[in-house]
């Protein structure tokens, strides 16, 4: 096993180089999405009045805000660490899916619904750009689909 394969998180040793442009684009997109999500988590932990009101407008009691913030913080931290980034992206997808469902249930504007959807897309786009494992997995799925047709 090569050091490069280990550094890229590919224990099988089949790591391919990611171009610097793709790697940095992925890091920037992931970083911007993570910064927003971390900010959102911290705001839920600090519970300023506007956060309490917005959460209550969605139908959640004030007592649930800190728990929601802890979950978001944990998911985002998992996403930031390369070894757990895929798990973090999966958990963030679930979290943001819940945010979308809450916005739809509360009959919020479509902007709020699309905003959460866009962040879920950014989470996966950043990961897809910077992690070969995600691209390899998607290639395997595509290959399996084409073999079954």
Report the uncertain regions: 1-6
What proportion strand? under 5%
> Which structural class do you get from the secondary structure elements?
mainly alpha
Q: Radius of gyration, rounded? A: 18 Å
Overall 3D shape: globular
Quaternary structure classification: single chain
Largest sheet: none
Gap between N and C termini, in Å? Answer: 36 Å
Q: Estimate the mean pLDDT confidence.
A: 90
Number of helices: 7
Secondary-structure element string = HHHHHHH
**Helix proportion of residues, in percent?**
over 70%
Number-wise, the strands total 0
Describe this structure in words.
With 149 residues, the chain is mainly alpha-helical. It is 78% helix and 0% strand. It contains seven helices and no strands. It has helices spanning 3-7, 20-46, 49-57, 65-80, 85-105, 110-130, 132-148. Helix 2 (20-46) crosses helix 6 and helix 4 packs antiparallel against helix 5 (85-105).
How would you describe this structure in keywords?
mainly alpha, 149 residues
Write the layout of secondary structure elements.
Elements: H1 3-7, H2 20-46, H3 49-57, H4 65-80, H5 85-105, H6 110-130, H7 132-148
Helix pairs in contact: 2-4, 2-6, 4-5, 5-6, 6-7
Write a brief caption for the model.
Helix content is 78%, strand content 0%.
